[in-house]
């Protein structure tokens, strides 16, 4: 085995898209328990944009390579124990990372993070799945513990995680309301049986009070701020508020995130209702079995058509800065995917 020369995208300092540039690097042979992976496609999320600008709590150092999710092909590996039958050179795998690094042509990863793609699953579609759908599983099952027939509110239901929650919620038989405002959101949500609430023209607390006077069993929130208190008030006795992200003021998002997380912790001390935080990178790192089982499950669902991730656009890896700019200006709807020359 020899070193592999490759390129990756690096954010040199916090700021705008001008801080992103391609750099050349080399990848040494994998140590025991690791594999070298040729990246085919990487999903792009708004978390990546926040990290680049310096507004993401879990990425506070530069330089770094953005991206939490990828699909690739195993180049070589060094076992450190019994080898599963599927682990072979050339096998395509999906990965959700615990630390950003996905905008790259090659990467070295621990073997436990590699989940083989089911036969026939498009690698571009697979690259949109790991982070959004693992977050949805965490929200619905680990923290929400919702049951068939429960009524829930999904904040930002037209976003990546919102759509994952909507689809998985429909499969679980949930009654769902969803806030959104993007063009076409009402039609999109209707496909999953989600009752649309236009948050720019309607107050979700008022709508729920009128339609669900007994409250809803769960609220899934990625906004924070004053909406957390309103969401908590919308819960039925015994209901749960699950926060999986926080929005905030530009330049102050880290502080707003810390305050939002603290607010959720305080809410959970009150009797009668629950509040919880979903932080998937930590959950992946802390429970490898949950990660592998969850990702295998959603990939299989995609392969058989039970879920249909929506690819908004596909771009060369080296155009990552342009993709960030297009996402910030809302020129791209749906999930953006970066591809290497290898796909």
UniProtKB/TrEMBL annotation:
Pfam assignment, any one: ADH_zinc_N_2
InterPro entries: ADH-like_N (IPR013154), ER (IPR020843), GroES-like_sf (IPR011032), NAD(P)-bd_dom_sf (IPR036291), Zn-ADH-like_protein (IPR051397)
Gene Ontology terms, MF aspect: oxidoreductase activity
Top-rank lineage group of the source organism: Bacteria
Enoyl reductase (ER) domain segment(s): 15-338
Gene3D superfamilies found in the cross-reference section: Medium-chain alcohol dehydrogenases, catalytic domain (3.90.180.10), NAD(P)-binding Rossmann-like Domain (3.40.50.720)
PANTHER family, per the entry: QUINONE OXIDOREDUCTASE-LIKE PROTEIN 2, SHORT-CHAIN DEHYDROGENASE/REDUCTASE
Protein name: NADPH:quinone reductase
Source organism per UniProt: Streptomyces albiflavescens
């Amino acid at each position: 085995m020899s070193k592999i020369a490759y390129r990756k995208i690096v954010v040199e300092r916090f700021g705008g898209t001008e801080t992103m540039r391609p750099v050349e690097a080399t990848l040494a042979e994998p140590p025991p328990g690791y594999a070298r992976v040729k990246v085919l496609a990487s999903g792009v999320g708004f978390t990546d944009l926040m990290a680049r600008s310096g507004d993401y709590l879990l990425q506070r150092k530069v330089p770094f390579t953005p991206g939490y999710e990828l699909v690739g092909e195993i180049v070589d590996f060094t076992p450190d124990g019994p080898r599963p039958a599927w682990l072979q050179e050339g096998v395509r795998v999906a990965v959700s990372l615990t630390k950003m690094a996905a905008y790259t042509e090659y990467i070295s990863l621990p073997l436990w993070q590699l989940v083989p793609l089911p036969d026939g699953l498009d690698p571009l579609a697979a690259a949109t799945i790991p982070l959004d759908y693992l977050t949805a599983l965490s929200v619905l099952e680990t923290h929400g513990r919702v049951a068939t027939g429960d009524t829930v509110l999904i904040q930002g239901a037209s976003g990546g995680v919102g759509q994952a929650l909507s689809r998985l919620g429909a499969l679980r038989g949930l009654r769902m309301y969803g806030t959104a405002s993007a063009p076409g959101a009402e039609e999109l949500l209707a496909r999953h049986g989600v009752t649309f609430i236009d948050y720019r023209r309607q107050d979700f607390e008022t709508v729920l009070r009128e339609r669900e006077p007994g409250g809803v069993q769960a609220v899934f929130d990625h906004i924070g701020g004053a909406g957390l208190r309103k969401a908590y008030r919308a819960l039925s006795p015994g209901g749960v508020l699950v926060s999986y992200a926080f929005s905030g003021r530009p330049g102050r998002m880290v502080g707003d995130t810390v305050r939002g997380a603290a607010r959720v912790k305080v809410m959970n001390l009150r009797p009668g209702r629950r509040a919880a935080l979903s932080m998937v990178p930590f959950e992946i790192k802390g429970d490898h079995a949950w990660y592998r089982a969850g990702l295998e499950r959603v990939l299989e669902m995609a392969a058989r058509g039970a879920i249909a991730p929506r690819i908004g656009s596909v771009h060369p890896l080296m155009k990552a800065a342009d993709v960030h700019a297009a996402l910030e200006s809302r020129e791209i709807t749906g999930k953006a995917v970066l591809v290497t020359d290898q796909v």
